[in-house]
Amino acid sequence: MHTTASSSMALSLYLHLLLVLSLAVAEATVFTLQNNCRKTIWPGIQAGSGKELLRNGGLRLKPGEVVSIRAPVGWSGRFWGRRGCSFDKTGKGTCVTGDCGGQLHCSGAGGAPPVTLAEFTLDSPMDFYDVSLVDGYNVAMSVLATGGTGMCRPAKCVSDLNRSCPRSLQVTKDKQVVACKSACMAFNTPEYCCTGAYANPNTCKPTNYSKIFKKACPSAYSYAYDDASSILTCKGANYLIKFC
């Protein structure tokens, strides 16, 4: 029997569902990717464990192009820029830097270092974000929080570290420096990689190499325990990620 009480309950449930859905949409975070470089960038996206894969993990962004991507509440992951890529019609190919297994859509794979990273953990309960050079550098990046509350300071590495990269860290192609390795990648020692006896902030300290990164990009992570000046927070923001 269809009664007034059951109709009221159905209406109440329907309105509650609409409210939940509207809140979910309102709280979703929008990442806007902007290519300020003179050449095409192929952004890669890797989601945290168990999190939704955005845009199949990769896309192409022409010079001056802007793309917005919506991430669900509680998302975590990282973005990076791939350079010098060439893909066939099936999405297979290679990138000079930041390659993710020779695929246009990274499908969960990370970028091969050295690569500049923009990292996010949303709604925990604040958003935590940073630009990291722990895996090296390949392109200038910045993260700008918009519409949020809290400190919400920009995270960035806008200096061209390829120009100032120490010779022992340089990655070259056709006699041009295309990326700058981390000291960990270049030398693979506990001191530089913060492993073994150096696997804590009391023993793993800035090195001459990480200091070069830090001087060029003060708000970016320069080594594994560079938390104090590099991890930033905001609440309820959207984020503009600029390449170059």
From TrEMBL:
Disulfide bonds: C37-C244, C85-C95, C100-C106, C152-C234, C157-C217, C165-C180, C184-C193, C194-C204
Family to which this protein belongs: Belongs to the thaumatin family.
Domain of life: Eukaryota
Coiled coil: none
Signal peptide: 1-28
Organism this protein belongs to: Kingdonia uniflora
Pfam name, any one: Thaumatin
Protein name in UniProt: Thaumatin-like protein
InterPro entries the UniProt entry points to: Osmotin/thaumatin-like_sf, Thaumatin, Thaumatin_CS
Keywords: Disulfide bond, Signal
